[in-house]
Amino acid sequence: MLIQISLRSPNGQARVQIEDDATLRELVDLIKAKTELSNVSLKYGYPLKSLDISPSLLGGSIKELKLRGETIVVASADPPPAAPTPQSAPAEPKPNPFTPKGIEPDETSLEWPERGGYVVLRVMPDDNSCMFTAFGGAIGLENPSQILRNQVADYILEHPDEYHEAILGAKPQSYTACMRQMDTWGGAIELSILSDIYNLEICSIDVKSLRIDRFGEGKSNRVIILYSGIHYDRIAFSMDLSYPVEVDVTRWATDDDAVLDKATQLARRLQGLHYYTDTTDFVIKCEVCNWIGQGTRDAAKHERETGHGRFGEMQITD
């Protein structure tokens, strides 16, 4: 019987098929051919665990591994290239699109030796869709914002007894019309709905307070996002910081408390760097009508009343 296995490697994502009574050697050879890597290390499961491909085990069947529908993370087991000689000019470092401005790249990741990799911060574009992009990327959606906005809006309209004006702060038709627009912020209501739609627990770590808000408790798997006051980013696990974001691990079992601990440690580091906006007293301005208010509560109220969703923080000087 053919089984399907997903692969995540430095060269991107792929899918392979193999007979469930194939040998481990046949699987490893297939993975090497698909990923174009001659020497590999393999990990799978939640939390990630190593797949032992010692020569003495390669002749065994893969049936016992129960890999149907599994994702295998593939890393190169070759040693890193030698450092440049003194005569060689060092290469110009490439900018990291996932590094916040004013923060060094090594401050946005936390080494996790026990898991053989790093917990990393993946910074989302500041485009009023950061929450949708953070969650959508965690579940593997490309260009997720409009897809998720429409799904949330449809869900609200399909559940009128649960999502009515008293909950939404606006009539459902008005609220959903705003939510379908790309410049409208998403928040707790949308996270709760996305948790139900995708059957995932969503943990949102607040940088300022280090509080963890859980949406969809009791589900089997979770994703983790980071909230910095007026912005959402994504938490991921990378086996190597040079790997592309496409091979990140972004889902974990909900009984894996270790990953939440590591993500909170990273949030604490970012807290020390003041990677958050204090929403209790900052002054906000509507970029549509120039309305001025204080904090996200005022902004949310203004958005519900007017449909305006583009805001910026005002800098007050003496």
Automatic annotation (TrEMBL):
The UniProt entry lists the main location of this chain as cytoplasm
Its recorded reaction(s) are: Thiol-dependent hydrolysis of ester, thioester, amide, peptide and isopeptide bonds formed by the C-terminal Gly of ubiquitin (a 76-residue protein attached to proteins as an intracellular targeting signal)
Specify the OTU domain's residue ranges: 119-238
Query: Which locations, inside or outside the cell, does it occupy?
Result: Cytoplasm
**Could you tell me the keywords of this UniProt record?**
Cytoplasm, Hydrolase, Metal-binding, Protease, Thiol protease, Ubl conjugation pathway, Zinc, Zinc-finger
E.C. number: 3.4.19.12
For biological process, the GO terms are: endoplasmic reticulum unfolded protein response; ERAD pathway; protein deubiquitination
GO MF annotation: an example: zinc ion binding
Q: Which Pfam families does UniProt cross-reference here? A: OTU, OTU1_UBXL, zf-C2H2_OTU1_C
Spell out the InterPro entries in the cross-references: OTU1_Ubl, OTU_dom, Papain-like_cys_pep_sf, Znf-C2H2_OTU1-like_C
Residue span of region Disordered:
76-109
Q: Which GO terms describe its cellular component?
A: cytosol; nucleus
Q: What does this protein do?
A: Hydrolase that can remove conjugated ubiquitin from proteins and may therefore play an important regulatory role at the level of protein turnover by preventing degradation.
User: What protein does this entry describe?
Assistant: Ubiquitin thioesterase OTU
* Protein species of origin: Staphylotrichum tortipilum
